[in-house]
C-alpha cells in the first residue's frame, strides 16, 4: 500500500489519504452504501492522468474518476477500493471560440463556472442536470435535465474529447466541426460511459447564443394526469418550449416548507419559453389559448425575479425532499417512456408508491417522457430498502413493457445493472466487448454499468 | 457458384443473376469503378435476411446491403463480389405513431414515400440528403443534408434499430423513448456504420410537426466569400433558419442551362425559415435588416410555387453538373470545418480547383460548415482521376488542419479510407476492434470504412 502511495506521489502533485477526504469520496447523498478508496488524487494535467493510469496498472488498483459526486447511481463510489481521481483541480477553461460556438474545457470545470465565463460573449451551455456538476461528470453520464427538450442531451453537445485509455494512450475521438460521418461513432461511445472506458482530459462542447428574453408559465391542475396530459398537448400542438417540468403536489408541499414559499399545493407544470420578445409573446399567446380548454390556473411571469422564484421550486425539489427527511438518503427512479405513455406511467407510479405507503415526490422532464419518483429512505433499514427496490422494480417494469428505458438521464451506475441486463439483453455482449477492447484489465470504475471479469 | 444460388433460393423469394440487374448493382453515378456481384437478392422479411447471412457465411461470400444506390463513396459497389442485398422489397411502413412522434419502417422505405404517408398526420421526417434515398441507406451513412442545421443528422433521429448480425442473431439497440442513458451508445455505432456491421431489418425514427408556413430568401453576392461570410453572420446573429445553402456562380450557371431557369449567375445563398406566419415574419425582418449592411441582392418568396422554383436550383445542382458533362462521372468532396473557417476553406477550395483548371461547382450546407466541390470526370482517364485526387487531397488536408473532418455527411466508403486513417489515427484501432467483435469474418461490406483481415 505504501508503495502505491509513494509511486502516485511521483506522478501527481496532490495525493491524499486524509480520512475526511477519503470519506468524502466514499459516498454520495443517495441510498447507495459507502465504500472507502485506497487513496484520492488531484491531478492538474493530462500527463498526471497518464502517470496515474501507469501506477494503477502496476498495482492492479481500480481507478474511479470523480467530479463533484452528484451522480445518483453510485458511479463514483469505490466499491473495489483503489484510486479516486478527483478532477477538481483540472478546472481550466482552455479555449472559448465564440466564432465557432464551441469551448474546450478540462473535465473538472463546473456547469456554472462555464456559464459564468461565457456570459460576456452572449453565449451559454444549455445542459442543466440541476446540480452544479462538472462537465466531465456530465459527459460521463450523458446528462440532460430541464433544457434537454429544446437543446438535447450531452451526447449532442460533445464535439470532441481527449481521453487517456487504460493503455496510457491518448485518443481524440470526434471533430471540431458541427458534424462528421468519418467512421464509427467512437466519441458517442465515450459520452455516457460512466467512467468505465477512460479518463477525459479535454472536452470540446457546442455553445448557444443566450436568448434575449424568457418567460415562465406555471399551470396548476387538480390531478397529476391532467398535468401530464396538458404537457403532451403542448408538445403535440407544436409549442416551442425551452423547459417543461412537472411537479406533483407532494413536491410542491415540501418545496414550500423548505424554501418558505407559498405555491399552491397541486400538480403543476412549469413551462419556459425563450427567444426574442415577439417570439415569446407568440408562444405565450398559444399557451393561453390552450389553457382555456383545461381546468387549471395559469400564472405567467416575465419579470426575472418572479421567474427565479418559480424555478426555485423546481431547483429546490431534490434538496427539499432530503430536508424533509433528515438523516435519510435519496433514491430517484429515472424511467423515460414514449410521450403517449407518460400519463399512464405517472399514474401507475403514484399507485405503486401509495400501495406501499411510501412517502415520495414525483417530478420530471415531461417534455422527454422522463420522470423521477423521489424517495427518502434509511439505507441501514433493510425493510425500507426492500420496499424502495420493490417500487423501483415495478416502475421500471412498466416502462420497459411500454417501449421505455430504465434510465433517461442518471445512467446505469451500480444501481441499475440488473435493469440494463433486461433492457439490453441483445446488445449486452457488444457493451462487454467494447469494455474488454478498451479496458481489458477492468481498471476503470469496475462494477459500474457492467460486471466483467477483470 | 450454382450451389450458392441454389441455397439462396431456398431462403429468399427473389434471387437474380440477370446481367442487367447485376450491372445495375455494380456501380453508382460517381467516379468509382464498377465491380460485379455474384448475385443480387431481394428479401422481404427479417427471416430472409437471417437466411441470407447463413448462406453467405457457409460460402464465405461478402454481403453488401443496397438501398437505391445513391451513396457517393462506393459503399454499395461489391469490390469483392458476393451477395448484394437489395432492400427495395422491404419497403413497408410498419407503424406510424403520431401520438409519440415516431415511425417504424423497413429499411427499403424511401424518404419521399415516408413523407407522403406522414402528410395526413401533419408530420414529416426532416432529413433530406437530396436524393430520394432509402431510410436504411440514410441510417447507414448517417446522412444529413439541407435540414440538418435545424433538425440534426440521422444519428439524432434514429431511436431504435433491429439489426441482423453476422452471427445470425437479431439485436435491438436503442429505445422508443425520447432519450436513454442505458449503457454504451450501441445504437449510435450502427448509425453511420455504412453496411459494415449488420443488416437493418427495422428502423424507428423521430418525427416532427410540419411547420405551418415557410419562406425562402435568395441573396446574391459579388464574391463567394461574401456569401459565406453572410451565412456566418446570419447564424452568429441567432437567426433561426431551417436551411441555409450556398451555390457558387458556376453551379447557378449549370442549373440555369439544365433547368431552363434565368437565375442571376452569382454566388448565392438560399435561406429557408419556417414556423407560424408571425414567426416567419419576424425572421424575415431580421434578415432584411442584416442584408442592408451587405452588398447583395435580396429576393424573398413566400408563394409556394416561387419557393419551389428557388429550391429547384439547389435540388438540380448535382444533376445539372452531370448533365453539363455527358459521359462523365461525378466526384463530390465533403469536408466540414468549424464555422469560422468556412469562408477561408471555400476560398482555398476555389483556388485549388482553378490551379488545376478543373471545371467544378461549389455548393454546400453552410449552416454546418459543410460544403461540396462537385467535379465531373472520366473515370477511365487516368490524368483526370489523378487531378481530381490531387484537388480532393488538398481540400481535405486544409480541413483537417483546421479542426474539420474529411466527411460531413457522405461517409467514408471506399473513397475516403486513407483520410479516415489520418483523421482518426488514434481511434482507428477502436473502430477495427468493433468491426472484429461484430463481424469477425469480415462478411459485411468488406473494404468499406476499414481494411481488416477477414
From TrEMBL, chains A, B:
| Gene3D superfamilies to which the protein is assigned, alphabetical | 3.30.465.10, 3.30.70.2740, Vanillyl-alcohol Oxidase, Chain A, domain 4
UniProt entry tagged with the keyword Cell membrane:
no
Q: Report the EC code(s) recorded for this entry.
A: 1.1.2.4
Domain called FAD-binding PCMH-type: residue spans = 33-210
UniProt cross-references to InterPro entries, sorted A to Z: FAD-bd_oxidored_4_C, FAD-bd_PCMH, FAD-bd_PCMH-like_sf, FAD-bd_PCMH_sub2, FAD-linked_Oxase-like_C, Oxid_FAD_bind_N, Vanillyl_alc_oxidase_C-sub2
Gene Ontology BP terms: lactate catabolic process
Q: Which Pfam families match?
A: FAD-oxidase_C, FAD_binding_4
What cofactor is needed? FAD
Which keywords has UniProt assigned to this entry?
FAD, Flavoprotein, Oxidoreductase, Transit peptide
**Source species, domain of life:** Bacteria
MF term (GO), any: D-lactate dehydrogenase (cytochrome) activity
Q: Which PANTHER family match?
A: D-LACTATE DEHYDROGENASE (PTHR11748), D-LACTATE DEHYDROGENASE, MITOCHONDRIAL-RELATED (PTHR11748:SF111)
Please give the family membership noted in the entry.
Belongs to the FAD-binding oxidoreductase/transferase type 4 family.
Protein's name according to its UniProt entry: D-lactate dehydrogenase (cytochrome)
Question: In the record, what lineage is assigned to the organism producing the protein?
Answer: Bacteria, Bacillati, Bacillota, Bacilli, Bacillales
Amino acid at each position: 500500500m505504501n508503495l502505491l502511495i509513494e509511486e502516485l506521489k511521483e506522478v501527481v502533485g496532490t495525493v491524499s489519504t486524509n480520512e475526511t477526504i477519503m470519506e468524502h469520496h466514499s459516498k454520495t447523498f443517495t441510498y447507495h452504501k459507502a465504500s472507502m478508496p485506497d487513496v484520492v488524487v488531484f491531478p492538474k494535467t493530462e500527463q498526471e492522468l497518464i502517470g496515474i493510469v501507469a501506477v494503477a496498472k502496476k498495482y492492479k488498483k481500480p481507478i474511479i474518476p470523480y467530479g463533484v459526486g452528484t451522480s445518483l447511481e453510485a458511479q463514483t463510489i469505490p466499491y473495489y477500493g483503489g484510486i479516486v481521481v478527483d478532477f477538481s483541480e483540472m478546472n481550466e477553461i482552455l479555449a472559448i471560440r465564440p466564432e465557432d460556438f464551441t469551448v474546450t474545457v478540462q473535465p473538472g470545470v463546473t456547469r456554472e463556472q462555464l456559464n459564468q465565463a461565457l456570459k460576456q460573449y452572449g453565449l451559454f451551455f444549455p445542459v442543466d442536470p440541476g446540480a452544479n456538476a462538472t462537465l466531465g461528470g456530465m459527459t460521463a453520464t450523458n446528462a440532460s435535465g430541464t433544457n434537454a427538450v429544446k437543446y438535447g442531451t450531452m451526447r449532442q453537445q460533445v464535439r470532441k474529447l481527449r481521453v487517456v485509455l487504460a493503455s496510457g494512450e491518448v485518443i481524440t475521438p470526434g471533430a471540431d466541426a458541427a458534424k462528421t460521418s468519418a467512421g464509427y461513432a467512437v466519441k458517442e461511445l465515450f459520452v455516457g460511459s460512466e467512467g468505465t472506458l477512460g479518463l477525459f482530459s479535454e472536452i470540446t462542447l457546442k455553445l448557444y447564443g443566450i436568448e434575449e428574453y424568457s418567460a415562465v408559465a406555471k399551470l396548476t391542475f387538480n390531478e397529476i394526469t391532467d398535468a401530464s396530459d396538458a404537457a403532451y398537448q403542448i408538445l403535440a400542438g407544436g409549442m416551442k418550449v425551452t423547459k417543461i417540468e412537472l411537479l406533483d403536489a407532494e413536491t410542491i408541499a415540501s418545496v414550500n416548507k423548505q424554501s418558505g414559499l407559498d405555491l399552491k399545493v397541486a400538480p403543476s407544470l412549469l413551462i419556459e419559453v425563450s427567444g426574442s420578445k415577439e417570439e415569446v409573446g407568440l408562444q405565450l399567446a398559444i399557451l393561453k389559448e390552450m389553457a382555456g380548454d383545461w381546468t387549471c390556473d395559469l400564472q405567467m411571469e416575465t419579470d426575472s425575479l418572479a421567474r427565479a422564484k418559480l424555478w426555485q421550486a423546481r431547483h429546490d425539489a431534490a434538496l427539499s425532499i432530503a430536508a424533509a427527511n433528515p438523516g435519510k438518503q435519496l433514491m430517484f427512479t429515472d424511467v423515460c417512456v414514449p410521450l403517449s405513455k407518460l400519463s399512464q406511467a405517472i399514474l401507475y407510479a403514484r399507485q405503486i408508491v401509495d400501495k406501499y405507503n411510501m412517502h415520495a415526490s414525483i417530478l420530471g422532464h415531461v417534455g422527454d417522457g422522463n420522470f423521477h419518483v423521489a424517495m427518502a429512505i434509511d439505507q441501514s433499514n433493510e425493510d425500507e430498502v426492500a420496499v424502495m427496490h420493490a417500487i423501483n422494480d415495478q416502475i421500471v417494469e412498466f416502462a420497459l413493457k411500454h417501449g421505455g428505458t430504465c434510465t433517461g438521464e442518471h445512467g446505469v451506475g451500480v444501481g441499475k445493472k440488473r435493469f440494463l441486463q433486461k433492457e439490453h439483453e441483445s446488445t449486452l455482449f457488444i457493451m462487454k466487448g467494447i469494455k474488454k477492447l478498451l479496458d481489458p484489465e477492468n481498471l476503470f470504475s469496475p462494477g459500474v454499468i457492467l460486471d466483467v471479469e477483470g
